[in-house]
Specification:
This protein is an alpha/beta fold. The chain is built from 16 helices and eight strands. Strands 1, 2, 3, 4, 5, 6, 7 and 8 form an eight-stranded mixed beta sheet that branches. α1 packs across α10, α2 packs antiparallel against α3 and α4 crosses α5.
Amino acid sequence: MKKTILTLVALCSLLTLSAQTMREQIAADPDLGAGIYTAYRATEQNPTPAPKGYKPFYISHYGRHGSRYQTAPEKYTNPLALFEQAERDGKLTELGKEALKRVRVIAKDAYMREGDLTRRGEEEHMGIAERMVRYYPEVFTGKNGNHIDCFSTQSVRSVMSMAAFTDQLLAMRPGLKVNRYASAAHFHFTKPDEGMNVNYKTARAIAKAYQREHTDDKAFISRLFTDFDYASALIRKVYDDPTSTYAFMGNMHDLAMIIQDCETLDGMTLHDLFTEPERFQMWHFFNIRRYLTYGPSADYGKDRNRDGLPLLRDIIDRAQDVIDGKTPNECAALRFGHDAYIIPLLAVMHVEGCDGAIPFTEIERLPEVWCDSRVTCMSVNVQFVFFRNKQGDVLVKMLHNEREVRIPLQTDIFPFYKWEDFKAYCNSLS
């Protein structure tokens, strides 16, 4: 019993340390608290050299659209209306007046651009494409074929991401033959809403109730408004919530986080409106919401994870056709969509750091288990790079945001896996 207690104490200490680590990271760089709004952070990689005799010949890819504006116009119009009314009523503090000036700039910049890809988002995909060619040039020489099929959802930001990516490929390798599709008929290999919709409303309600219960926004509101009771009444009216003011603080955090995705707002910040504990608190709330509604939680993740299987089957089947010579001219397959597709793919494959399953009763330790910023930032991408030797033996490695990652499959040559073993593993998942 004593040993068990000591083990539990040690475990709790480790969990606390892990949570503090994320807290410290956000304190050092508030943009890391943006969750799914985190702009893509490219770092130069040093790909592990393939075993002797193996050369890359094919890449299968899935990428989320790049950095964008907020998708809902009220994310901009609600706080602007609130601040402007408080200004007319003489109820803003000096910091509140400064916040209003910045919100006006942010709202004006976003006018009629809700959900649009930004130039930064285009540049993210151009950079990923450039590094793909630079790291694996043999794939794009034409020796292994010069045909690339590209598929996008019909979302404009996804289509533009595909265009930016493929234009960069063509600029570097003009001899490529690129076919681009943006039709539901061609994007049949994944249906991300099926599993999510089973529990989405319930999971989201739980996450919002948790946020409502635990948000401590009095100090935040009091920094911006001279009269807390006045501000509370106005917030409830603007956000159509007679029982709580938590939505306003969350909205302001959303605006603070999306700034990094818009090159037109470089130099702008709202981070100073929040204290360090508040920044971590807001990230934690939205990390919980994304985890319960989209992620591999123990309560709701089983159905959701299965949404990754159609995409995985498409990746496996297309690769096998290339290996078997059924599509001899194909050197790459590229797909562009949303984080709703990539989260279950990473989870169902049990990619390291992306499949942590805990029940809601243990949600306070989620920062140690699953982090939305790392799992699915803007332009998040998964790449499967295939290598072959003269004997026809095939290896594959998996990249998450261009970094080599592990799955629970035995290999003596990490990050490389024997294709037959990798395929068997993927086909065993359910």
